[in-house]
Amino acid sequence: MKRMEREQVYLEADQNRRLRALARDQGVTESELIRGGVNRVLNEPVPFEPDRRAWKEILAFIDSLIAKGPAKGRRTGEREDLYED
């Protein structure tokens, strides 16, 4: 068994009541349920929540560039010049 370290956490009263009942129903300790929850949080990727305000600003900026029309002047190179060999 891996070495355990003691950690104190504070739960809301409802969380504590539900945790105690779930542990009793499953025949495991509250600590086992908590360790399982910690492992789940640590092993699952954190969902990415985009900043919608920032995206609106970016899209407005892109729209402003499009509204200006094509850039004046001509290209000085070929598309293939943009890629490394």
Secondary structure blueprint with pairings:
Layout: H1 13-26, H2 30-43, H3 52-67
General description of the model:
This protein is mostly helical and about 80 residues long. It has a domain of about 30 residues. It has three helices and no strands. It is elongated and about 75 Å long.
In short:
This protein has 85 residues and is mostly helical. It has 3 helices and no strands.
Low-pLDDT runs:
none
Shape descriptor = elongated
Helix content: 40-55%
What gyration radius follows from the Cα positions, in whole Å?
28 Å
Q: What structural class do you assign from the helix and strand content?
A: mainly alpha
Largest sheet: none
Beta percentage is under 5%
Strand segment tally: 0
Distance between the termini: 54 Å
Order of helices and strands: HHH
Average pLDDT metric: 91
Features:
85 residues; elongated; mainly alpha; 3 helices; 52% helix; 0% strand
